[in-house]
Structures are given as structure tokens and as C-alpha cells.
Amino acid sequence: EGAPVLLIPGMGLAISEMRPLRQGLARGFLVVAADNRGSGRSPTPPGPYSVEQMAADQARVLLRLGLAPAHVVGVSMGGRIALSLALEHPGLVRRLVLISTGPRASGRGLLIRAGMAVSRLPLLRGRERQPWAAHKAQFAASRSFDCSARLGEIRSPTLIVHGRSDHIASPVLAREMHQRIAGSQLLLLPGGHLIALGPWRVAPVLAAVTEFLREGSDAQPGPISG
User: How many angstroms separate the most distant Cα atoms in the chain?
Assistant: First the structure.
């Protein structure tokens, strides 16, 4: 129950693998969580994909459910999708939370690929393993996206949460977003890229996100259609 929150997962992740964050948010909000195309239980159409395309997918989810505008929380690649959603569909986004992400890739593609290869081991993943072709399509979409020059256009109140030792999305990108998004808040926490995923890491992230979203949940604007 509560104000709607759209939770957007990162590259290769299924919503089922974000249970600590999803369930934590659900204690105070109505959480909408849909797997991106190519992940989890969503279809895996042939590539190429784009971040803008995946943002349009998520926009359609909100509109189909009649829950727009909603708060939007994006993690890693999901943060880039959230940025695209705020830029291309600003009327759908109330408050914006960007976790472990940046407006563009940080030049560490080999490290990302190595991490994703390890993460695909059966013992480390849930039931919805991502097909390799879909992984490559999401990877290419995330690496080619760059909205750095448009950050000043974002008007939604924004919280940026980032690990100080994130080697996938450099903290430099978090500081850049903070500088360019007017009125944004920046929270740097101990830890790396996975601060929002493991149950042993998520508590400070969840506390900060919950407080930020509650600040923007007093007013209840009417639904958006079309």
C-alpha cells in the first residue's frame, strides 16, 4: 500500500533477485516491479535493444496499470533506464532514485563482462537465467547510452546513492549527476556496486530511499493517461 514506486532492475537481473530491496520498499509503498526485456520472465526479443526502448517499456507498465505518476527507483543499468524515463516521460516520474549508476558507461566494459560471466554460474543465480544473446543486447544498450549533456533537464527531485568503492560505475559519475541535476541529493555509502542487492548490505540504502520517497508522498496527484 501507499504511493506507487516503480523499481527497475539492472543488467541481467530479474526482479526475483532483488527481493531485499523490493520487499523493503513494499513495507511503505505500492511497488511495481517488471523485468526488463531480455531478463527474468519478460520476453527476449532479438536485439539490438536500447535504454530508451526499455524506458518506454517501463512507461507502458505504469500507464497500463494506471499508476502514473510514480516514484522511480533504478539500480545500475536500471538507473540509466530511470534517467531516460525522467527525460523522455517526465510526467510519469515523481521522485527519482539512482542507485549504483551513471549517465554513461565508465569505461570498464571488460570488468563488467567478467562480473556478469561469474554471476551467470547456476549456483549464484535464481531460476530465470538470462539468455546470452539477451545479455549481449542489454550490455550493448547500456554501454551506448549517454545522457550526460541532458542531466540539467531533469526536474524530478532526485536522490543519488552510490558505493564509495564501486568499480563498475565510478563514484565520479555519481558526483557528476549530483552537480548537474538541480537540487539533487548525494549519499555515498561504504561498499561497491552491489550495495542495494545483498540482504546484508541493503539496510542503509533502504533507509535513505524510504525517507526520501516519503518526503514526496504527501501529495497524491491524479493519474496520467495516454
Answer: 45
Say which DSSP state 46 is in.
Answer: -
Which pLDDT value is given to residue 105? 87
3-class SS at 124? helix
Quote the cell numbers at residue 213.
520517497
Task: Give the model confidence (pLDDT) of 61-87 as tens digits.
Answer: 999 999 999 999 999 999 999 999 999
Task: Enter the pTM of the model.
Answer: 0.90
The number of angstroms, rounded, from the C-alpha of 177 to the middle of its chain's C-alpha atoms is: 14
Q: What string of H, E and C letters represents the secondary structure of the chain?
A: CCCEEEEECCCCCCHHHHHHHHHHHCCCCEEEECCCCCCCCCCCCCCCCCHHHHHHHHHHHHHHHCCCCEEEEEECHHHHHHHHHHHHCHHHEEEEEEECCCCECCCCHHHHHHHHHHHCCHHHCCCCCCCHHHHHHHHHHHHHCECHHHHHHCCCCEEEEEECCCCCCCHHHHHHHHHHCCCCEEEEECCCCCCCCCCCCHHHHHHHHHHHHHHCCCCCCCCCCC
Rounded to 5 degrees, what angle do the CA atoms 191, 10, 87 make? 105
| 8 A C-beta contact, residue 71 and residue 95 | yes
Cα angle 118-97-206, degrees, rounded to a multiple of 5: 70
* Backbone dihedral region for residue 133 (phi beyond 0: left; psi -120 to 50: alpha; all else: beta): alpha
